[in-house]
Predict the structure.
Amino acid sequence: MPVLVVGSVALDHIKTPTAEHRQLLGGSASYASVAASFFGDVRLVGVVGDDFPPQHTELFAKRKIDLTGLEVAPGKTFCWSGEYELNMNNRKTLSVELNVFETFQPKLPEAYRETPYVLLGNIAPSLQRSVCAQIRKPKFVVADTMDLWISIARPDLVALLKEVDMLILNDSEAKQLTEEDNLIRAGKKIVAMGPRYVAVKKGEHGCLLFGRDGEFFSTGAYPLETIHDPTGAGDCFAGGFIGHLARTDDTSFANLKEAVIQGTLVASYCCEEFSLRRLEILAEAEIAERRKAFGSYIA
Amino acid sequence: MPVLVVGSVALDHIKTPTAEHRQLLGGSASYASVAASFFGDVRLVGVVGDDFPPQHTELFAKRKIDLTGLEVAPGKTFCWSGEYELNMNNRKTLSVELNVFETFQPKLPEAYRETPYVLLGNIAPSLQRSVCAQIRKPKFVVADTMDLWISIARPDLVALLKEVDMLILNDSEAKQLTEEDNLIRAGKKIVAMGPRYVAVKKGEHGCLLFGRDGEFFSTGAYPLETIHDPTGAGDCFAGGFIGHLARTDDTSFANLKEAVIQGTLVASYCCEEFSLRRLEILAEAEIAERRKAFGSYIA
């Protein structure tokens, strides 16, 4: 089954304690669509400027991502600049230039409207809702979000929660959204707000998955000794998650658990290099290999 | 197989944002021996003062813990006073009165010397080493430790690491001991320092287990919505861990994984009430019940 990914496509400038890179391919839709492409067909909706480097478009094409929905607008591509601290967990945003993304209104090509599996990548909840209004008979819709939208667009986000099957966010965001200090209580509160499921990402500590009927799953991250750049890991988690659901066309809780694991594994590869450089050369067999090792790590 | 537990026996004064309790039964050996007692016979080595409340001794007796090695010295029992912040993760020590513990030298009764499974609870590494010198032909020796000893007794701790099969410590302590920011590298460095295995506790995020031959296991904590008092949870983890090993008399890595889970479950009960109040009324069947639920939470 195909996957629809809507989100940002960006040029990232990233500083870590050991390196600095400019004009990297970034954005929630870029990471998520490439991650999902390891599992089947992907349709991308986003916007870039006329400065978007052709090699980035080629990467999408190489991953056989359908770019019918990738709008090219006059002007500059959305640009994010950030810096990581020594522990690679704490990150500060140095600058955000929205550029063509400022007026982005996702428009789904007619052929995309009946895509059964949908990932609303991390963009403003009002835009995510406008996608919900355009899709027909989806089987499973996942929305990703971030602290910014909880702070500045809470009513839209709360409305979105009633329109999607699952929310993905990280632990501090789950606490922020629910004003709960305990993550288990926070997860339960979120599924009571609308979505059937919520995945709470905890970075190096893995992920918790909650279902509205009391279902629960907890898994660690894949053990990595070196993290070159965690940017996009959360988007890759979401992309791998929805990709696995679409490939198996099975939305049982047992299969959501496996989707969490597949997302975790793709995210682990993402952290090994800057931008999408590791995923660019990743083979499906490597995901399967890491899955086998992970099986012995968690049970 | 019996378990030998050596450590502190204390009277704790604990403040949380919602409650305050004095003269609670505490100390690493108290928590660990009661936790281990759910799995089989336990022998305790420690010291108390002549003020030690009889009801605390009765609790040990009720759990059928052998107290031949519990010395009663003239003077006051070791007393620890601490306060938890609202999130129940951050704790500050308000006062420490060593009292009779100041001159404690663990002396193993002759009948204890050939105990096959040994837990060196969290006390000074020099004392833990003196126990190693007194035991004969142990099958598996686990040492627990804390930040204080890494700071003030590092040479003793480093020497101890070559004399035990496994070290237990928490994530920040693993980083402190190895001067590594990445927990996976930290774990690998510790097993290279001597112990065959290391368990790195991460509180609400669960536990990582490393083996010297590259073995690895990662598990989450049991999901708890309310934590009344996390004091002693780490000691209960250690007690449940060694208790399970002793009951099964199996030190394979597959069984160490199960021991981590059993320790996790006993620790989860510990957090539900102050001191040992929950473990005092805990039934073995409740551990089995939580084990069954946990199985579906992690796989």
Summary: The domain at 3-298 of chain B is CATH 3.40.1190.20 (UDP-N-acetylmuramoyl-L-alanine:D-glutamate ligase). The interface with chain A takes residues 86-88, 181-185, 188, 202, 204-206, 208, 216-221, 223-227, 257, 296-299 of chain B (CB under 8 Å). The longest strand of chain B covers residues 65-73.
